[in-house]
Amino acid sequence: MALEIDFFYQIGYFLLFAVLGGLLSMRFRQPPVIGLLIIGALVGPNMLGIVGSGDLILLFFELGAVFLLFEIGVEFSMSKLISSGFKAASVTVLKIAVLFAFGYQIGVLLSLGFLPSTYLGFIFAISSTAILTKLAEQKGTSNRKESSFLLTMLIIEDIFAVAALTFLSSLSEDIAASLESSIISVLLALFVLGFSYHVLRKALVHISGLLIKYKTEDTAVFLALALCAVLSLFAHWLGLSPTIGAFIAGDIMSMLPICSKLERPLKPFVLTFTGLFFLSVGMMINPASILPNLWQYLAIVASFIAVSFCAVSLFTYLSGFHSRSAIFAGSSMVVMGEFSLLLAMEASRHVPSFDFIGITSLAVLATALFSSFALARQPLMLSLLRRHAPVHMQSRMHNISAYLGEVMGDFEPDGKFFTLLVQRTRKILNYAFHLVAFAGAAFVLVLLFGRQEAFGVRLVLPLILLAALAILYELARILQQLLLILGALSKSVVRFGTAGDSFATVLVRNSVLMAASLAIALIIPAALEFAGMPKIFYLANLPFLAFAFLLLWNLLSHAPKLHRR
């Protein structure tokens, strides 16, 4: 009985301190996660010890993580992702690559080894959907035109974070032994996703229709929770993190007709457990491990804030946005949160020698405070930038932004190149179908009539010859479409200069740019080798090689016309 009373006392403390954390955040107009982490650290077993049950802390952490991913899955939208466009995807990929490289290099500088450095890279690469949404509500920026762009970036990052969590949850210190099993784990996660989409979704659509018909929405709440529990257990059975199953369950529920009726009854329940998640993370913070390395951690976090803010602002500006929008994006996307904490927890299990939870919690607090501060002072930051940046540099950056914005615009769903690519791809698929049909028909005809003769000639050779001509004709049509795509791509990318430029001007300009692109492509592998980066980063030289090739193709395709001038 005494143990049961103590258990209920601990739960009461949890709920009380969650309220205090929320009130603390409201008092200083900050996202709730900040107050929850601070209160959790103060009352946890590593400081005041008011809540000392490690099992209860771990239980609320696990439950909170599951419901947090379930909520993100419900808000996830594949349709928005597909229609989001090229700009958001490009900026997100560049942002993840730069911040992963930053985190990985911090691990290298601290001599942590490959696995801890990889964890740090993933931890620093992902922004917080939950905190950014709360900040947008508090600052009144939800209706800005850039918000949809940032929302798309967050959706892409959520997919990346789920894949990273899946991959890293199966890694161990023995990288060589675990790499193959990790790849298998990712494939299993894809299998779970496919299974959920193609089997469970169809069954649940029917069940959802029945629940709406008989007006039993309260039963639908239990259906959502049961689905979350079943897929979480299924993911755990496959050797994956249960949070992956929760994310998939949320994504399935978002596609059901009854989803809109579930938001109101489920929201308080989910918010309660996600709040307890952040509170439990705060209770895991150990100040004794942070204080000896406090200045080192603060330097790392400050460097991260500077790199993240500058990188996202620069990439957003270069994608064609106004400088005001770029600063808004950099201020918003700097914040770390739920996925970083989940990855830090996973990292601490595999690599207990480094305080991942401590540095990540510190980074979450610092980035949330910086984001709140920066969002409130965007006009001042823009004024300082315009005042101190050289005029000629502003002019050049504006020209580059305009150029890249036009290029990326052609790759948007309604862009010229994207439209042409869809049309030509359909023709290529049609021609490829003809090619396969001709080859298959020729094979059947040779089997049936190849041994027969006509006018003293065996039919096998004429049949093969006719099939070869038909196949060559279709191959020529496919090649023609590929050349049209390549020409359109070259026209979209190589769009500087004017129509009246002389052949000598085009030759010199393209040659200089080709030489610069090839030089950068050759330098990248050596620089990455020196920095000790993972081999996948060697792909960074491909865009420069492709740009050089497009410059050459543009020069060759226009050489006769330019020469006649």
Number of domains: 3
Helix content: over 70%
Low-confidence stretches: none
> What fold name stands as the CATH topology of the largest domain?
Na+/H+ antiporter like fold
**Shape field:** globular
What does this structure look like?
By secondary structure, the protein is mostly helical. It has three domains: 365 residues, Na+/H+ antiporter like fold, CATH 1.20.1530; 84 residues; 69 residues. The chain contains 23 helices and two strands. The N and C termini lie far apart (97 Å).
Summarize the structure.
By secondary structure, this protein is mainly α. It contains 23 helices and 2 strands.
Descriptive tags:
single chain; 81% helix; two-stranded antiparallel ribbon; 565 residues; globular; 3 domains; Na+/H+ antiporter like fold; mainly alpha; 2 strands
Itemize the secondary structure elements and their pairings.
Elements: H1 2-27, H2 32-43, H3 54-75, H4 78-82, H5 86-109, H6 114-125, H7 129-139, H8 146-168, H9 175-213, H10 217-237, H11 242-254, H12 259-284, H13 287-290, H14 294-318, H15 323-333, H16 338-350, H17 356-375, H18 378-388, H19 391-410, H20 416-449, E1 453-454, E2 457-458, H21 460-493, H22 503-531, H23 542-564
Antiparallel strand pairs: 1-2
Helix pairs in contact: 1-2, 2-12, 3-11, 3-12, 5-6, 5-8, 5-14, 6-16, 7-17, 8-9, 8-16, 9-10, 9-11, 10-11, 10-12, 14-15, 14-17, 15-17, 15-18, 16-17, 20-21, 21-23, 22-23
